[in-house]
Amino acid sequence: MVDLVSQYQGLKKDIDSAMQEVTSTGAFINGPAVNQFALQLAEYLKSNHVIPCANGTDALQIALMALDLPEGSEVITSGFSYIAVAEVCMLLKLKPVFVDADNQTFNIDANLIEAAITSKTKVIAPVHLFGQPCEMEKIMKIASEHNLYVIEDNAQAIGANYTFSDGTVKKAGTIGHIATTSFFPSKNLGCYGDGGAVYTNDKELAAKIKMIANHGQQVKYIHDVVGVNSRLDTLQAAILGVKLKHLDKFIAERQVVAAAYDKAFSGHQNLAIPARQNNATHVFHQYTLKTCAMDIPAFKKYLETKGIPTMVYYPLPVFKQKAFNQSITLPVSEMLCGCVVSLPIGTDMDTEQINYITQTVFSFFEEVNKTLTNNN
User: Is the pLDDT of residue 372 over 80?
Assistant: First the structure.
């Protein structure tokens, strides 16, 4: 789905140099590159504090741990998303409360959040899905009115901008009380292994997050709270420091690919292009089409035979997973799980590749129509 090798070749000199600097010093754990990257990312995001950690799921767990929530506290999140938010809730003996998705943006439907709030609700955890921020102005207003924390899962939308009604522009992940992100290799800002980060503008929360991520200690061997061991490797931090300088360029390149797909598929009777919010930018971690009256397994198999990977995010709603098995109905989330498919998108796709993919998609429908005609 993402050509990581081509991207590396374009940055090879700088990345090799950064990695060599780490290996030549032997500072593999908490080396200078980790703090340097944290400061660089904080500057890019205009966030006061960035605390690197081992992966995006750890980041979510650490963020929730920092809030000292009572057992059984409820965390509102989207029913159409990856499992990570709900998973860490269960590990911490919190209750994930799922709200339906918006049919157009695929993000949590902010208009449905307030109805899900109870006396046990403590957190709203919006997931910025596929690269587009949720309706954060509305979410922050609800949170303020009900005295709730907001933890943004920004694993898929790092670099996206959100514009408030007064014209203020903020990066996704810098609006809530805490945000988390993942540096999984396929992410827009990805390393060459696992990695993640937590960020916040709150000084006290930042100190607690940093302590929790480091075995609950501020001073070595003095443990103030029960924490975890979650570190970003120095080698990965060095790689991310190089790639961060190119993040806006990576985003622009993804947007070019998305625009080409939009132009090709706009108006197609079986495909709906990704919707855009007027007050936010879309950084296209994924380019996800909504389908209509289409055999997705057959579509995927056809493209696979032509050398084109596709992916369905996500084929089963979180709340229907065996691990949760909640007896609720969220019609939009359930519908989306059965009708979305993502096409390859990345930073090094040329016009020839894009044209091949779009023409192959059209060829699939031509084959389907031909078969239907012959059967009739």
Answer: no
